[in-house]
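Sequence in, structure out.
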Amino acid sequence: MEKEMKSFIGTKLIKAKPMNRKDYNALRGWTVPSDENPSDEGYLVEYQNQTPNVKGFNGYVSWSPKSIFEETYLELITNPELKTDKPSISQEMVDNFIVKVDTSTLQNKTTIVIATLANGFTIVESSTCVSPENYSEAMGRDICLKRIKEKIWPYLGFMLQSAVTPLNTPKI
């Protein structure tokens, strides 16, 4: 069964699905050159709002090696709570964008959380209580992570807006 193309964001909104070099060349009606490995893993990529170059697609189609593709694009997981299937940010995307969390306690009542995001950017938050007897690092961590996730929503929203709207065409 053929996999459906999923949406991803980078600097553009694209659709893509896993496809090896051999299958991509077959789709294009080409023969794999002798100096290329037909089993190379990669992705069939369709760029939206571009002139189609392959029958059956609405946009320009190309192939990207797997490692380069996965370093460049973030899978778009549409928010299931919305009334539209248009591109959106979901809680799952926000949660998955955090790749590492470091938590520390200072002065027996303050929690410091450093969250490292998928692009290497870090966000730092803190929470504290009045009495050390009431301190809970787990509770402080939860408070900080909630604040961090609230910051990630607009970051990913900005990234998505940049992908779906040409940068030199403001929509005011």
